[in-house]
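Deliverable D5.2: sample structural annotation.
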Amino acid sequence: MTRDFDVMVLGAGMVGVSAALHLQARGRSVALVDRRRQAGEETSFGNAGLIERSSIFPYMFPREPAALLRYALNRSPEAHYHLSALPGLASWLFRYWMNSSPEGALRSATAALPLIERSLSEHEALMQAAGAMHLLNRTGWMKLCRSQSSFDKAVREAERLTPYGRAFEVLDHQAIAAREPFLRGTFAGGVHLRDPGVVTDPGGLAKAYAALFLQRGGVMLEGDARGLTQEAQGWSLPAGEERLRARDVVAALGPWSDLVYRPLGYDIPLAVKRGYHMHYAPEPPAVLNVPVLDVEGGYVLAPMLRGIRLTTGAEFARRDAPPTPVQLARTEPLAREIFPLGARLDAKPWMGARPCLPDMLPIIGPAPRHPGLWFDFGHQHHGFTLGPVSGRLIADLVTGAEPFTDPAPYRADRF
């Protein structure tokens, strides 16, 4: 049996579900296709829950000699690499380093700003429609600095946000203790970034958006993106015993987007930064009011509905290599030093993969050589943050509407 749609969206993470909702709102019939037939089960599930409106400057490759030495020795808690993965990553890492110059970082920040600027408002619009506002807190998050040098650097980084109208507060140790009385240890200081939203169940929010899509008449099906084929009038994909056909296809597969673009001859420098998380029960009566980043420790503690979630930094490895939660083993003792974590709540560490391009900007726009194929992936650490605003932009482009911002910085052929 064949079913016809206007658009197929491949991938039901935050990026894909948001694209499906925005296309649907423009009157398109949409099929949302995922190998799990569930939303928010991959990278959208395993993050710190931040809608990062203050992250104007992307996560760039460090250039300080001391940091580079730590990374080279594989001793840094915020980054870890597989030696076996380096040959395949060498070219990408070099391009990442080149793009991380002060000039490159400013270019990426300027290009990302229109997306970052609207990230929270676009989420809030979907949350209102999906009845999910209870998952959002407007508390922002804090950077905690153990040393004076890291505190000074955090303040300098926060001050760069002033021209963009972002709110922050510089905190001494007493101010930190007043806001988070269950934190332990002595900190040189901290910075409270006030603009980001905090979601207490990221995977649940993606599922709420998917439920809204279904309530509005959308269709969600199980399918394998590797079966996508081009036809005279569009694209087709097997989904169980059915075959789906659509004039347009949006590839929103995050770290698996190469399953679509590589067979079609596109050489896109997409790599992954893997990450891990674990949930813990806080020891009564301890509570954590806002997510906190231990700058020297290289991890985040975030209050979630399930408990306190510890999320790690970046692991450079092959996407499908077996999990190696080295960073979790390194950071859990550090986290227990500053907050009374109780028992682990998960049977094993969760692992996900962040899809990254070397300029830390996503690809949002048409495939250069295949009419009707659209790319919406590569959102690095901000897929959860940028899903709804990316969905609006890709829907503008697919439907021929005037885009709310110039899409040129996100074009697929910029490399």
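Annotation notes: Residues 135 and 199 are 5 Å apart (CA to CA). DSSP finds ten helices and 22 strands in the chain.
The annotation will be released with the project's public dataset once the embargo ends.
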